[in-house]
Amino acid sequence: MSLEEDAKDPGFEQFEQFLEEWSRRGFLKRMGAMGAWFAFSGGVIELLEACGGGSSTAQAGKKGGHVVEGAFSDVRTFNSMLSSDTASNQVIGLMFDGLLNSKKNGDLVGALAQDLPKTSSDGLTYTFKLRPNLKWSDGQPLTADDVVFTYQLAYDPQYKDFASPRRGDLSKYIASVAAPDPQTVVITTTQVFAPFLASHGQYGILPKHVLGTLSGKDMNTADFNKAPTVANGAFKFVSWQSGQQVTLARNESYWAGPALLDQYIYKVLPDSTTVANQLKTGEIDIGPVDPAQFDSVKSSGNTNIAEFPVAIFDFFAYNLDPTKLGGKLFGQKEVRQALIYALDRQSWVQAIYFGHASVATSVEPPTSWAFKAKPQVVYTFDKAKANSLLDAAGWAKGADGIRAKDGLPLKFEMHTNAGNKQRESLLQVMQQSWKDIGVEATPKLIQFPQLVTEIVSTRDFDLFLVGFSWTQDPDESPLFHSRNTVPGGFNGADFKNADVDAALDGALATLDKSKRKELYGKFQDIMSDQVPAPILMFNVGIWATSKRVMNADFGTYNQFQNRPWMKDVWVTDGK
Amino acid sequence: MLLKFVARRLLASVIVVLGVTAVTLILMDRTRGAYVPGIDLNPALRPEDIARLRANLGLDEPFYQWYLSWLWNVLHGDFGRSMIDGSPVITHILERLPNTLELTLTAIVLGILLSVPLGVIGALRRGSKSDHALTVFSVGGFAIPQFWLGLMLILVFSVTFQHLGWPWLPSGGVTSPFGGGDLGDRLLHLILPATVLSLFYLSLWSRFTRSSMLEVLSQDYVRTARAKGMSERRVVYLHGLRNALIPLVTLVGLELPGLVSGGLIVEVVFSWPGLGRLAFERALQYDYTTVMGVVFFTTLLVVAGNLLADILYAILDPRIRYA
């Protein structure tokens, strides 16, 4: 891929979106913003399931009844091209299928498209074949024109006043979207870009016959965004009482066959305590469980609980800009390594995460095919090693017990956003652990948008701690490629490493999975040695479902927006 | 006289409304400027896209200009649209207002109906066991945090009762999500939150009624009334209570803004989709327009509540005249 100065990568949006989610909600709300899942096109897929719907364990169920799902956030919009938050994406996903969908393990499957697209030999053109006789819930045919229209909203200049958060990415990567016949869609991209299908192939398709007459600006406030009149997914819209609930009903003309449930209700609840209580009373049937509530929900015995790893980390990053204080303190990799050796992360699993997390060993999540469990350096708690590394690097303890080098004390501030108890706890234990080796770190809590501004723009921090959610694709250029140190980029650590750049670029510009895996392995090795931004913990997703609900099939990549199994969910009591 | 007084208070009210909304805007602006989630700081958007989309929201102006045009629109009945979801702010307010009123009116009415008799009993039987019990009760009711009490009630009357197979109360919401919405369903959902909220009023106002009643009963005119041989019942209820209630009117009047905003904590604990929760959640999401709309609306009600209390004062107490 080319190295442009203002290059932007996919995953930025998920990152930003994730930060936002992470900032103001409890632990499980942060399980949100799971990005799209990536799988390869161009002949490397070995197994393709013929049909996107249904899990392998699905049992034949009874038709009828409803489920109520509890969630922390209200929906903002039902327009798939406007939405940038998990809550909206989740409900949109039930009403609007995209060209593709994801399986639990992250493999892409056809949805409105029959299958994965054919990729041209130069890797630039994707040709999708739509399923025959697709229909909107109002009986109108769903054709390639609807797909073209949907993508135009986010890349065509005629819709430039439409506030789509996808405009930057799509206008960068899409050269054209065309419909040579009503059942064929051809997307031509501007460059070979491995994560394209996962990142941009799953947007819910919008109805041209309803929205086609509106200007970009009018589309921002269209009634459709609040109360969509048609749908193409398993469910269609019934009502939305803001702050309360969204009610959906079965779409009889769904391409994969009608869902079993009569109704699906998305109920907005203020916090994880309420979700836990209502799971216990049965007021809600499905809900995310906070690790702190896990035992109490489990012991009530009313629910089945699913727990699985997710691509979500807690990490902190140093400011490595040599002109700033951080660069002077953390410039030597020995200092950075010593600081991790001083952290007893294994004890945090229980103390902070109630046993529902694991110590991170690499910068890739364990859910990724590119994950390397044992990269070049694996860090365990070793205070003696931390001390000796700092001594050897020239940071000697002064009279006040604080280490210093050339008159510069090893003192700095750690920033995270206010209101997130878990992260506040992390900073406190880090402060204590580092004090033990003669390092003075002071936690400082700031408002979330200010924190993001610090990370992407002003960069006046010494160290920041945030959460991070990743898509199925292992690309991490947004965080660690040197080109993203420019203002607006997410490499706020100012980490520049030519070998990392080369590995990341090489892996993005090829569709050969084994080649990519090798490059990402190298990337993880360098990162474990350099540790510009240590990943602290890997998190898990926890969902409880009432025992009357069958066939709920939550998994790493089927948590929020992608739930192809939802149409097979049924309730044993038929209510 | 009263008219002149009302006119003067109205003028002061305008200044209060302007001041409160301006301060709100300045606070939000100082926190992070007009941050639009999904658009600002979104590296997937080009700077020129962000600038254009912000300009569409009127955010390219400095905040004082934004304030002036906001004010102009509000005076013309246009509260603008939410920056989060694009729907009109007034729709959000009107959608949430009935829920909040349902909760707070119930709590205030319950509070008045129970606190006045309890206060009178306390005053008449001063120093008795029932007086002490009432004192402990109201101090406790005042001191227990609402969120804690709410959670305990949910734990007992929803979770535990349900677990034991007893009839139980819903733990939150205004109606059942499925097949609910009739009067019985609404009342069931109202019981716990209204209890928590009214306990606060009850504790405050019963103490107040008690001390006010004690003060009145020691006045000369009460002694005179007794000396005239008036029955104790007439003394207490005609001369005593009427005068003792005057200060309570102010207190209740001051709680009128609580009608729209007062239930915030209770609304959050009981997932009650009211106005307080709207403002709270939207403030966390940097939704300028919605927060400004709710603040404006609430301020108007505070001012109106105070004005109403002053006027009631004049009616209830002939000695009060406004020069």
Structure in words:
- The complex is a heterodimer of chains A (575) and B (323).
- Chain A is of the alpha+beta class and 575 residues long.
- Helices cover 28% and strands 21% of the residues of chain A.
- In chain A, strands 11, 12, 13, 17, 18, 19 and 20 form a seven-stranded mixed beta sheet that branches. Chain A has a four-stranded mixed beta sheet with strand order 1-10-9-8. In chain A, strands 4-5-7-6 form a four-stranded antiparallel beta sheet.
- In chain A, helix 3 packs across helix 4.
- Chain A is globular.
- In chain B, helix 4 (89-124) runs parallel beside helix 13 (288-316), helix 6 packs across helix 7 (183-217) and helix 12 packs antiparallel against helix 13.
- The mean pLDDT of chain B is 84.
- Chain B is 74% helix and 0% strand.
- Chain B is flat.
- Chain B has 13 helices and no strands.
- The longest helix of chain B has 36 residues, at 89-124.
- By secondary structure, chain B is an all-alpha fold.
- The chains are: A alpha+beta (575), B mainly alpha (323).
- At the A-B interface, helix 1, helix 4, strand 10, helix 8 and helix 15 of A face helix 2, helix 4, helix 6 and helix 12 of B.
Low-confidence stretches of chain B: none
Residues in helices of chain B, as a percent range: over 70%
The rough form of chain B would be described as flat
What summary fits the major beta sheet of chain B? none
Overall pLDDT of chain A: 86
**How many separate helices of chain A?**
18
Instruction: Using the CA coordinates, give the radius of gyration of chain B.
Output: 24 Å
The tally of helices of chain B reads 13
